[in-house]
Amino acid sequence: MHIAAVMLISALAAAPAVISAQTTRPPARRPVQVPPKVEPAMVNCPTVLGEGAKTARMFCDVLIERDPTAGILIPFPPHTGDVTLTFELHNRHTYSEDEIRNKRAYHRYTASIGVMALDNTLLTRAVVQSEFRNAGDMLDRVLGGSGPGGLKAVAPLGSEMIVVTVPAMEQGVSILGEKLSVLRVDGKDDFETPGRPIAVISNVMLEYRPGPPPRPSSTAKPTQKPTQKPTQKPAPSK
Q1: What is the number of other CB atoms lying within 10 angstroms of the CB of residue 175?
Q2: What is the pTM of this model?
Q3: What is residue 71's predicted lDDT score, i.e. its pLDDT?
Q4: How far apart are CA 175 and CA 124, in angstroms?
Q5: What is the Cα–Cα distance from 212 to 50, expressed in whole angstroms?
Q6: Which of 44, 103, 184, 223 sits CB 3.0–4.6 Å from 73 for a disulfide?
Q7: CA 78, CA 7: separation in Å to the nearest integer?
Q8: What are 74-100's pLDDT values in tens digits?
Q9: Closest CA to 204 of 59, 56, 97, 99
Q10: What angle do CA 155, 200, 126 make, to 5 degrees?
């Protein structure tokens, strides 16, 4: 009797350990986090200013527009999570040796732009302001002109780094010009007419986590099977 009681107590003590071992599940595996990718963006530039003589960058004019499809379009590759868009925003100056000699070269530019979602939702605005007094103030000169050294008169001036966090659901953005103010030694002008170039962008980059490509549309029509001609029965023999 004493031996049976001891065996019963030992069995009861071991039971919780056995039950615990049977009900314990291995920890769930966490999904592998894809590291972020940083790369130059694909820029669909309606009006290319040209290549920088010093920096070898491609400079793109920002025009005053109201329709996102007419702006600088930057499509995003397949991604998960938000996309970080960065670019440098410059003023746009027309260089003149005569103005420098005549001490009338001073210009102060203030250009504002908008970064829009493709459905015309405003994501953010940005402003760049810079001053010109002499040739050393320009960021770069642009190749492809008829001036000395094959340089264009129009050149980027100043630089403002713009960083935009774009929500994950967006598949791209459009950059549009809004307004330009120019202060000169002899007066001031404001420009808001659509189609006018008012600023320049360069060095456009994307940071994102790669994701699967978008699924094909479910509205595709099913393939129609070819219809079969009915089998013709042979005529009865006479």
Answers
A1: 28
A2: 0.76
A3: 97
A4: 10
A5: 35
A6: 44
A7: 65
A8: 999 999 999 999 999 999 999 999 999
A9: 59
A10: 140
